[in-house]
Amino acid sequence: MKKLLLLVFFILPALLFAQRRDQYPVLEKTNYFGLQFDDDFLFLGNRDEQYTGGLEFEYIRHFKKKKAKVGLFNPFSEGSRFFTSSVGSYLHTPYNISDSLIIENDRPFSSYMYIQTGYLAHSSDFQRRFTAEIYFGMMGALLPGKIQDAVHTIGDSPPTNGWKNRIAQKKRFIPNLKFNYQNTLINITGFDFIGLRWLQFRSIWELQTGLYLNSFSGGLLIMADNKRPSEKGQFKTIIPQKRAKDEDKKFRFRPYFTGEIRFVAQNTSLQSLPWLDSPFIVAPDHLNRLIWILEGGFMFTRGRFHCAYKVQAHSREYVKYQPDWHTWAGMTLGWAFN
């Protein structure tokens, strides 16, 4: 019965979720609730290693107050603001998850469970957005390893015998901060390519700092849409033509691709911390400080319902016993409401 409850806790949320707050399309003046589920088995030809899975429940609430002075919690004049909160976890494992001994020169077992709170702000024309979040996280808990053990009793999955060698042998408080800024470079509309009528190029900048991850990244988001969005920004028409009314489009389809490069100063899931009493870490001189992050996927929207599928790939994070690229996939579902 205990294993059944763990499986329900871990798998059922994979059938829910919404668009992540720091990615993809504009979140307009609505609230929403959802969840994201990442796992290796959602992508063909993959296996449990490196980042092996994640789970996040998320709630976003719109601030209805229209007038507010520009400041720390309102970076854009006359823009829209949202309160964000989430609960989630990340799991990392080495290549051989069944080895009960300490595996040198490979990623250690580690988990990060957190409660997040913060805010999201849009400029009035929806062409810029900024998120600021604080993570009250914990490493060393036994629950993530127990959940993975229970899941691996299904089918031909190998047993996970190495969680006793995880980073942090006891529960430890590991807070972190995250800042994300996006700016639309160009919107192109007025064309019709396999049903897509709009194309956007957006720059992405992100800073993470704290006890879990210290990094800075920058990149580009390219997103298409089968309907011209309601943003008030300037659009460039490249192929003028008569189009059907956008209001007739009840179903929206948005493919996207992002490419980022991240500089990593410190990563606790690989390096641990001096006071965590870790039995094994990846040495600092074995780390690759520059990491490429590629992601592509599809979003579908009908009314207030959202769903998506994504595939993400990271380049090699450290020198030994790791493939050049690690890939996994994620599922999203969610519901917007007033």
SSE arrangement:
Layout: H1 2-11, E1 31-39, E2 50-62, E3 80-93, E4 110-122, E5 128-139, H2 143-151, E6 172-193, E7 196-210, E8 213-225, E9 236-237, E10 251-267, H3 268-271, E11 290-302, E12 305-315, E13 325-337
Helix pairs in contact: 1-2
Q: Features of this protein?
A:
globular; disordered N terminus; Lipocalin; twelve-stranded antiparallel β-barrel; mainly beta; 338 residues
Descriptive report:
The protein is mainly beta and about 350 residues long. The chain has one domain: Outer membrane protein (Lipocalin, Beta Barrel), CATH 2.40.128. About 5% of the residues lie in helices and about 50% in strands. It is built from 3 helices and 13 strands; from the N terminus they run H-E-E-E-E-E-H-E-E-E-E-E-H-E-E-E. It has helices at about 1-10, 145-150, 270, and strands spanning about 30-40, 50-60, 80-95, 110-120, 130-140, 170-195, 195-210, 215-225, 235, 250-265, 290-300, 305-315, 325-335. A 12-stranded antiparallel beta barrel has the order 1-2-3-4-5-6-7-8-10-11-12-13. A hairpin with a 2-residue loop joins strand 11 (about 290-300) and strand 12. Helix 1 (about 1-10) packs across helix 2. The two termini are about 40 Å apart. Mean pLDDT is about 80; it is low at about 1-20 and about 240-245.
